[in-house]
């Protein structure tokens, strides 16, 4: 489908009321889910002043995908998807109520975070499976394009913009009300959807065993394919790495503003807002010159920029300690300069995220065969979960013992290793593209 035909298809589906309802529900629910995670990170940091507690919270948000990832797909395929969409949004709206009543209880915060993350992994596949029943087959690509854009945009709006800004300006209670309203509105929108077609076979033990067996064989085939397609393998690694960096940065951001900038955790917006703006700027830059910039070059540049930004953030803490030891409490008059440097570095880090993720995802879409695409993206989801899970087990204790600087240095080194290890594959792909264009 060409760019012009894709744009025409997008205009067409925007006149489809059922599609507009599920798309609006996606926007509301995904923004709300990301805002919950972001706000709870800030809240836990304020309650405990511990990087370990913050990383444990992120761990609880990632864990459901590891524990229930296979099961949720089986259940969604054997239940009424429209009902699943209504119930999952209603459950998430109800789960916010304990935060309004007992928001300072660490146990309640952890339970709500795990519950929202668990319910969300059932909402996403049910939503994706519902789309083909609402739009014409020729409009599916346009519909999926809008949903993919919204999925990434919801992270920026919810995690990086909505939650930090409302918490900083108005506090948690208003944010909880806004989030509960968004989930409730999404549930109401899903109730307006046409009834889902009846399932061919209801959930049973035999169906579950068959699905697990098919999943294992499909994953094995995907890994066999990846061994023969290094550019696809490296693209998966790049995407998983960037998501891991975002998870780590999210877990450490409150501790960073406390340790380095010597201000309260609610001021985490100093970091996350410029990072979000950087992602948007990076996406805009790629849209302008993306066709003229080889994708391997963009990825390599993004990795170098990301490593540099991490090293700059690591160097901020010892420099801040030097200033605070010879001056007034906190950073004193040096605070505006430090805040500007940190914000600028976060902006650059956001640009690097766009430079790595978008070209890598494009390479996946270009290189993957249709018959293997679903299984490879299943591997991607697993890699993202595992890559995020393992660091979150250790970064909190390390940051509490030695500060955030060693963590940033360690991840800068990891990014550097990935840049070096994948360089030959990127160069081969660039040479192949050059020959194809001649």
Topology, pairings included?
Blueprint: H1 3-13, H2 17-48, H3 51-77, H4 81-95, H5 97-102, H6 106-130, H7 140-170, H8 172-191, H9 205-227, H10 230-259, H11 269-289, H12 295-326, H13 335-367, H14 370-402, H15 404-421, H16 423-437
Helix pairs in contact: 1-7, 2-3, 2-6, 2-7, 2-8, 2-10, 3-6, 3-9, 3-10, 3-14, 4-6, 4-8, 7-8, 7-11, 9-14, 10-13, 10-14, 10-15, 11-13, 12-13, 12-15, 12-16, 14-15
Brief characterization of the structure:
The chain has 438 residues and is an all-alpha fold. The protein folds into 2 domains: 203 residues, Growth Hormone, Chain: A, CATH 1.20.1250.20; 225 residues, Growth Hormone, Chain: A (Up-down Bundle). The chain is built from 16 helices and no strands.
Summarize the structure in words.
The chain is mainly α and 438 residues long. It has 2 domains: 1-203, MFS general substrate transporter like domains (Growth Hormone, Chain: A, Up-down Bundle); 214-438, Growth Hormone, Chain: A (Up-down Bundle). Helix content is 85%, strand content 0%. It contains 16 helices and no strands. The chain is globular.
Proportion of beta-strand residues: under 5%
Report the CATH architecture of the largest domain: Up-down Bundle
Radius of gyration: 22 Å
Question: Helix fraction?
Answer: over 70%
The end-to-end distance, rounded to whole angstroms, is 23 Å
What sequence of helices (H) and strands (E) makes up the elements?
HHHHHHHHHHHHHHHH
CATH topology of the largest domain: Growth Hormone, Chain: A
CATH domain class of the largest domain: Mainly Alpha
Q: How does the helix and strand content classify structurally?
A: mainly alpha
Low-confidence stretches: 1-10
How many domain modules?
Answer: 2
Any idea what the CATH superfamily of the largest domain is called? MFS general substrate transporter like domains
Number of helices: 16
Mean pLDDT: 78
Report the sheet with the most strands, covering strand number, pairing sense and barrel closure.
none
Shape: globular
């Amino acid at each position: 489908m060409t760019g012009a035909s894709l744009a025409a298809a997008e205009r067409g589906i925007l006149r489809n009321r059922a599609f507009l309802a599920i798309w609006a529900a996606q926007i509301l629910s995904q923004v709300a889910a990301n805002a919950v995670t972001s706000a709870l990170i800030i809240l836990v940091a304020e309650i405990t002043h511990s990087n370990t507690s913050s990383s444990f919270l992120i761990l609880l948000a990632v864990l459901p995908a590891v524990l229930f990832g296979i099961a949720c797909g089986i259940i969604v395929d054997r239940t009424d998807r429209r009902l699943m969409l209504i119930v999952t949004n209603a459950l998430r709206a109800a789960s916010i109520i304990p935060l309004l009543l007992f928001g300072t209880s660490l146990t309640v915060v952890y339970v709500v975070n795990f519950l929202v993350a668990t319910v969300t992994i059932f909402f996403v596949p049910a939503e994706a499976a519902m789309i083909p029943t609402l739009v014409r087959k020729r409009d599916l690509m346009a519909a999926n394009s809008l949903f993919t854009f919204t999925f990434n945009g919801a992270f920026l709006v919810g995690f990086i913009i909505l939650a930090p800004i409302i918490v900083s300006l108005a506090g948690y209670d208003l944010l909880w009300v806004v989030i509960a309203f968004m989930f409730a509105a999404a549930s109401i929108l899903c109730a307006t959807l046409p009834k889902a077609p009846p399932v061919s076979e209801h959930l049973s033990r035999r169906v579950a065993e068959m699905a697990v067996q098919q999943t294992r064989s499909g994953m094995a085939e995907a890994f066999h394919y990846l061994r023969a397609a290094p550019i696809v393998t490296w693209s998966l690694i790049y995407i998983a790495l960037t998501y891991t960096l975002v998870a780590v940065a999210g877990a450490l951001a409150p501790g960073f503003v406390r340790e380095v900038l010597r201000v309260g955790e609610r001021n985490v917006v100093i970091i996350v807002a410029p990072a979000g703006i950087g992602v948007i700027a990076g996406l805009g830059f790629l849209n302008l010159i993306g066709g003229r910039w080889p994708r391997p070059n963009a990825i390599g540049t993004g990795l170098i920029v990301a490593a540099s930004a991490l090293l700059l953030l690591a160097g901020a803490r010892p420099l801040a300690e030097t200033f605070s030891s010879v001056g007034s409490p906190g950073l004193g008059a040096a605070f505006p300069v430090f805040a500007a440097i940190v914000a600028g570095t976060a902006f650059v880090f956001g640009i690097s995220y766009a430079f790595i993720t978008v070209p890598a995802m494009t390479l996946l879409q270009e290189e993957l065969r249709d018959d293997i695409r679903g299984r490879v993206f299943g591997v991607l989801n697993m890699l993202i979960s595992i890559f995020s899970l393992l660091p979150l087990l250790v970064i909190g204790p390390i940051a509490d013992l030695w500060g955030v600087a060693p963590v940033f240095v360690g991840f800068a080194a990891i990014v550097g290793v990935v840049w070096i290890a994948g360089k030959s594959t990127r160069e081969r792909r660039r040479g192949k593209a050059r020959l194809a264009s001649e």
